[in-house]
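Morning F.,

Quick status update on the modeling queue. The single chain you submitted on Monday has been processed. Sequence for confirmation:
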Amino acid sequence: MRNNKMDFNNKVAIVTGAGQGIGFEICKQLAGQGALVILNDLDAQLAQQACTVIDQQCPGRVHAVPGDCSNMAVINQMVEYATGNFGRLDIAIANAGITLFGAFLDYRPEAFDQVMKVNLAGSFFLAQAAARKMKQQPGGGSILFMSSVTGHLAHKGLVAYGMSKAALEMLARNLVIELSQYRININTVAPGATLTERTTENKNYETAWQKITPGGRPATVADIANAVLFLVHERSRHINGQNIVIDGGWTSVGIQPE
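Structure tokens below.
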């Protein structure tokens, strides 16, 4: 009988925005299943702390490359770190994103530019730099973008953010045409309400989303990471240009939080 255990033995992965929350959980799960992980976060101290925590269970598996992942120099540094130290790059996960709330009529150009730079440009150019390396490898690779349910349903105050997340799903579909010939598959996941260090700063967050989510609870970071690992595993290579919504059924009803 075939072994159905999903492992990433010595696969090399980059994960951006991974100092905490969903990105941290993705790195922890990848390292726990044998991957070599380049962990990126804008906050250098947070990135190093995350590596230290994971290193206690998975020694030598996670390596911090902090910096602004929308900056081309940092993107190139991550990719070169992967290929220079480990000889390859198998997985690139553009998890980093920024949420700047604001009413459409008052939204500032500088806020718009910042959201688009991090959420779109950072993801676009990480995928580009990673794909340039992956196309040279016999086995190709996998790329994943982090979308959001706000790219599917309107959410008050998140016009720019929702727009950027919807764009990532279209980017993945377009890259199917560009990258499939190099054995590179590319997909997205769209988390709904998720319990992270940031969201739980609001004491009412979990209760509010319990009430309006058909599944009865918001997602955990493990819920999101489980889907991410499924999509970037080599057994999922024939899944290409797709998006998985992980929201406990919320987009089926679309009730706005109070």
